[in-house]
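Reopening this ticket.

The earlier resolution said the output was attached, but the attachment link was broken on my side. Pasting everything inline this time so it's all in one place.
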Amino acid sequence: MLSLARMNAIATPLSSTPSALDEVVHRLKDGARAFAQLSVDRRIELCEQMRRGYAAVAGESAVAACRAKGIDPEAPVAGEEWISGPMVTLRILRQTVDALKEVKKHGAPRLDRSRCRTLPDGRLAVKVFPSSAMDSALLAKHVGEVYLQAGVTADNLREHQASFYRKPHGGRLCLVLGGGNINAIPPTDVLYKMFVEGTVCLLKMNPVNAYLGPFLEQGFKAAIDQGFLAVAYGGAEEGAYLVHHQLVDEVHITGSDRTHDLMVWGPPGPEREARKQRGDPLLKKEITSELGNISPVLVVPGPWEEGELGFQAANIAGMVTHNASFNCNAAKLLVTPKGWAKRAELLDRVEKSIARSDTRQAYYPGAEQRWAQFTEGRAGLRVIGKPAPGQLGWAILPDVDPAKKDDRVFTTEPFCAVLSETALEGSDPAAFLEKAVPFVNDQVWGTLCATLIVHPATMKDPQAAAAVEKAIGALRYGSVCVNTWPGAVFGLGQTPWGAYPGSTLQDIQSGRGWVHNTFMLEDIEKAVLRAPVKTMPVAPWFPGHRSLASLGKKLVELEADPSWLKVPAVAAAALRA
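Inline output:
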């Protein structure tokens, strides 16, 4: 049972003092060498202790998140916090334990040759989802692959996995600057750095979700007690102090490109630009990052029937409304075929589906100002809902001119309740994708994730199917999804999460490096997740999901202690949507 005090109060720890930060950095640095030399058996034991510890606080952390975000913990939408926080974290903890057991037996998590296929350009794709019968039962007919960079083959795949366990370093300390929007981000970023890359971690909580820190301190006590992990608190001042601390070896940030550039290049102005020109960053340390995205949804023309179109409209709407649209992977730009007869109908259906979601608290700082910047003076603006004070209406910005390259809908991530729509020429799949792929690659900011909405009949036509496969390969995004939300890639665990590789520090886009990725793959180009055009039950992000709270709790119970006996309860909750 949750105590009444814990249910009705959100405790936010005070900022850590410089002396406390120094103390914890020295302690972690002392533990880094021991952690690097830890046996795989000890790592398995530690990760299992962390899994059990986190499971004990999972429910309380979900309720605290609801309170912080203005959600009634008993309302259906509270299920978002159970799924995107505890469920994802417990799933990745469980998978990490399993992966470490595979490392012990085989040197790396096993990927049989039957999971490998050769792409048209000769590179390797590896199927990572489903990886169990339970995966197949819980997310039927979904297939997740990882496209690898040139040079990786089925024969040498193991040489591109789990390199820390082949050649361990001498001990490193990573500062993890955790994201403030999704509560699985800070703990799962830490898990990746600790158990895939072998670093000890200092997790500096974002002020927006600092309330989560005490739960992580309690849940991950086994690692903290051994000097392998610590949690710190504070804002930009404390973050800057730690970023430039001489004992911190590397940095990982989930946040914005503006924060990244401030750390790497210094404040805006002539000095920053001069440093960029000569390639001389202020921050000389290795930095990995996930920095947001204007996430595009490309709707490919096809023989769409009413039910199919309605289903995908609800799918798109859920990509917008989840977590009040404070997601780096929230759908932000709908790209449609200009002459498509169902273009207006799709937009109307998206609007009606969004209307099934109540307006939400604008809990992320600066949301009201960003919303105003995108909506003021915008022709054709549609605002959905009647927001109370402190809330935002859902905004749709239709028919944005794609020729206006400097329009902020193409250059700036809104990070609030805004969806834009633009239309490109192309009446058939191949012609549309020939326009749409270079448009989002070259004109739309970000490299994190993109979605293709494709009718199954399109994939039965050889020419159209080839155009879709070409588009999947050509999209310069770290995740490409077909008929589903990239948020699923974030949550599965087996699929790597990160930006498309190749961004420079001078033009970081959505960042660099990977997390989650429990098969410990390296030399990754992108994750690709494919789903049917309609599924039953509907996905948990669909607006108006009536049993979401129950489903979220059942999924947490399942991930905390997997058993086939729990699957019927999960299925029943999902089907009541």
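Reporter confirms the inline version is readable. The radius of gyration is 23 Å. Residues 40-68 form the longest helix (29 residues).
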